[in-house]
Amino acid sequence: MNVDTPIPLSVVIQEAEFDIAALQQSLLRESHQEGAVATFTGYVRVNNDDRSVNSLELEHYPGMTEKSIGDILHEACDRWPVLAAGVVHRVGLLQPGDPIVWVGISSMHREAAFSACEFVMDYLKTRAPFWKKERGPEGDCWVDAREGDRSRADRW
Amino acid sequence: MLNVVFFARVKEQLGCASLQLPWDDALSSFAGLRFQLTELKGPKWEEVLSEENIILAVNHTVVDESAVLNDGDEVAFFPPVTGG
């Protein structure tokens, strides 16, 4: 890769819903070098650990959130031949069925795109300063960090 | 001056999102910062800010207990993260 050309990396934190088609398009370059785009979208589940969820409130640490996700994207670029990468993460009040997070990676081949996308998602779960609070019939409840998320991130 | 910020469960337990402390060399360690906050706010703060799984950050980077704090830093205390 030409070191003079920075890899386009985008990190957006927003309350509004996002347009998945437009985000996918944003990963494609006019040079048409990419042969693969892998994307992941996370949604609010209606049940979490047998608790029923009416809504989910997402808090974050403005400034650190953008920096930590930017660091994760740079690390992905060091490990795989990434052509472009983007993360959108929503904050505020969300309902079951709402998309929360989107990760997209373009590369020349699918292996790098798949791996980098999963890596970014695993690291995002364990390193980016977001906190979920569920609102359900039994009241409000901060979501606990999952050991499974940590072990998934540790395998990289 | 030190800008100290709290998030999520920690913020709720303390009833405080942020505060500023005038700089003092005694604030250059987390132990010193905790001591001063406890003097100002009471023993509950010592308990909440010493929880085993609490995460510490200085100027938007996660650090460990041994980090050195400097005048002008932003210091954060928060619980394990649950994004994505």
What do you see in this structure?
The complex is a heterodimer of chains A (156) and B (84). Chain A has four helices and ten strands. Chain A has 156 residues and is α+β, with helices and mostly antiparallel strands. In chain A, the strands form three sheets. Chain A has a four-stranded mixed sheet with strand order 1-6-8-2, with helices on both faces. In chain A, strands 7-5-9-10 form a four-stranded antiparallel sheet, with no helix packed on it. In chain A, strand 3 and strand 4 (51-52) form a beta hairpin. The longest helix of chain A has 18 residues, at 110-127. Chain A is globular and about 55 Å long. The relative contact order of chain A is 0.23. Chain B is an alpha+beta fold and 84 residues long. Helices cover 31% and strands 25% of the residues of chain B. Chain B contains three helices and five strands, in the order βαβααβββ. Chain B has helices spanning 8-14, 30-41, 43-49; strands at residues 2-6, 18-21, 55-58, 61-63, 74-78. In chain B, strand 3 (55-58) and strand 4 (61-63) form a beta hairpin. At the A-B interface, strand 5, helix 2, helix 3 and strand 9 of A face loops of B.
Shape of chain A: globular
Quaternary status:
heterodimer
Shape assignment of chain B: globular
Mean pLDDT of chain B: 97
Estimated share of beta-strand residues of chain B: 25-35%
Rounded radius of gyration of chain B (Å): 12 Å
Outline the biggest β-sheet of chain A: 4 strands, mixed
- Total strand segments of chain B: 5
Helix and strand sequence of chain A? EHEEEEHEEEHEEH
> Which two chains form the greatest contact, residue counts included?
A-B, 29 and 17 residues
Order of helices and strands of chain B: EHEHHEEE
- Roughly how many Å is the radius of gyration of chain A? 16 Å
- Order of strands, main sheet of chain A, comes to 1-6-8-2
